[in-house]
Amino acid sequence: METFAFAPAYELPSWPFTPPPELNSAKAVRHPIVIVGAGPAGLTLACDLAQRGVRAVLLDEDDTVGVRGASSRGICYAQKSLEIFERLGIYERVAAKGITWSFGRTFSGEQEVYNFNLQANSVSAQPPFINLQQFYVEWFLVERILALGVTDVRWKSRVTRVEQLADGVRLDVETPAGRYTLEADLLIDATGANSAIRTQLGIDAHASRSTDRWCISDVRFKKPLPTERWTWVDAPFNEGRGVWQHLMADGVWRIDYQMPEDCDPAYISQPEVAGARLREQLGPGVEFEFVWIGPYGYRDHLLDSFRHGHVFFIGDAAHVVSPFGARGGNSGIQDAANLGWKLALVAQGRAGDALLDSYDAERQPAAKENLQVTSRSARFLAPRSPAEHTLRRAVVALAARYPFARALVNTGRMSVANPYPAAPLLPEGARTVQNLPLRWAGDGRQTTLMQLLAQGTECIGLWFAPTRAQADAAREATAALPLRLLAICNNDDGGNDGGSDSGLPTLQADDTLASHLGIGDAGSFALVRPDAYRAAVLQHATPQAIASAVRTALAHHVPASR
């Protein structure tokens, strides 16, 4: 029998357990915010809060990142997530370590039927995607959190019991040094798909499990493959089933093979069996070494509400979707970005509890949309009936000849930032604003939207050519609100003192900025929230209308529901 040498395992970092002060306290200590779970969602939220100067306790039952055994797990980080990482201060590390890509090819058999370039519609300073093993992202987030020095990170701390109180939550925690109890005004569950907190609270996740089966091979090749996302709908080298291949950091390729529904997970994961698949795909002479091999079967679930009293659910604790299109981990990161600034404003006394209700109102529909999209992808890749097989064959055949059919080839609609529906805080709904490269009027210094949003916890008001009188009146009308007013002028209007007669700090505009924000005429105004979502557009802004738009977006007129 052939033998296959595995590459040396990744050396994951570990952090020491420090006995918490509660171990020596007879009374439970109360904390404003406690986060349980140091995966991508929990770490993003902790880092977001720390960046805003908001203290939180972060509990995790392990003392490292990723999974022991160093599997790749999540790998594709979408532009919105990368923009969040830019604001949090880890993007440069992610970009330096990961593999940037925007081009993908889709094949049926030996024939390429469709390709795409995600860069075509991007105006962001960040690329459409970077591939990076999940544990690296977690690693960078932990180090950033520790550097900020605001968060109480507690390793080897397992939550064994959760109890809702009238004014908060009580938690029992088990550690190597003993057990203790603490209380939280607000608890955020980021413990993942198998959340024990969710189970203890009796919350139905509406879970379902697919019969679709896959096997991952993390591989290093002696001869590199093209740095592109290649997908096969029905690969001839995999008995007519689907295959994905992506390059990650450290020269490691992630190749996912769709397996028969009745396969034996242990058998398909054997090195000699996985090696035979690789040779079938790339030829008998291909030289490689395995880093990791593992089977998986996906499942999904979706909570009816992401807020239950004083407990919030983010990431996989709230929703799980199949992996097609990289909508799982990215959605959890974006949950955290949505909730973080709202928690910060409430903790700082600058917004009421009603603002926190908008987390569920916005992120639950986003998760529902992701579930629908990924479920359609799953049915396309694993048809369940003769009619579905016939439809897929017809789509693939048409796509090879006709452009209109290529968008119907569904191998995973790649992750995008979900728009938010109209709601009391968002009368017109909201959509993300990409991380536009910007330039200050007058001296021409460069900045970006994320750099502006990284400075405190404020909405940004972008106002096209206001007068001095309008600007003065708006500053007075919004003085008590978390708003940073900025003027926008045309590129050829820049002058001294910020490039505007309004007295406001002023950015130079171009057609990209104006069209992306939906403004461009004198007096028009766009309100951008701290999570880079456009909350309102006023075509003829007045100081009173601006103040009203900010109050609405921050729930200053909405009573708390809990």
How does this model look, in words?
There is one protein chain. This protein has 562 residues and is an alpha+beta fold. Helix content is 29%, strand content 27%. It contains 15 helices and 29 strands. Strands 1, 2, 8, 9, 10, 11, 19 and 20 form an 8-stranded mixed beta sheet that branches. Strands 6-5-14-15-16-13-17 form a 7-stranded mixed beta sheet. A hairpin with a 4-residue loop joins strand 15 and strand 16 (252-259).
Q: Could you give a short account of the major beta sheet?
A: 8 strands, mixed
Which regions contain 5 or more consecutive residues with pLDDT less than 50? 1-5, 494-499
Radius of gyration: 25 Å
Helix content: 25-40%
Principal-axes geometry comes out as globular
Span between termini: 64 Å
Number of helices: 15
Return the structural class.
Answer: alpha+beta
Average of the residue pLDDT scores: 89
Number of strands: 29
Q: DSSP strand (E) fraction?
A: 25-35%
Topology:
Layout: E1 29-36, H1 40-51, E2 57-59, E3 76-78, H2 79-88, H3 91-97, E4 99-101, E5 103-108, E6 111-117, E7 129-131, H4 134-148, E8 152-154, E9 158-164, E10 169-175, E11 178-189, H5 196-200, E12 208-209, E13 213-221, E14 229-235, E15 241-247, E16 252-259, H6 265-268, H7 271-282, E17 288-296, E18 299-302, E19 307-308, E20 311-313, E21 319-320, H8 328-347, H9 354-381, H10 386-399, H11 403-406, E22 431-432, E23 437-439, E24 446-448, H12 449-453, E25 459-464, H13 468-477, E26 483-490, E27 506-509, H14 511-517, E28 525-528, E29 533-538, H15 543-553
Parallel strand pairs: 1-2, 1-11, 2-8, 5-14, 11-20, 25-26, 26-27
Antiparallel strand pairs: 3-7, 4-7, 5-6, 9-10, 10-11, 12-18, 13-16, 13-17, 14-15, 15-16, 18-21, 19-20, 22-29, 23-24, 25-28, 28-29
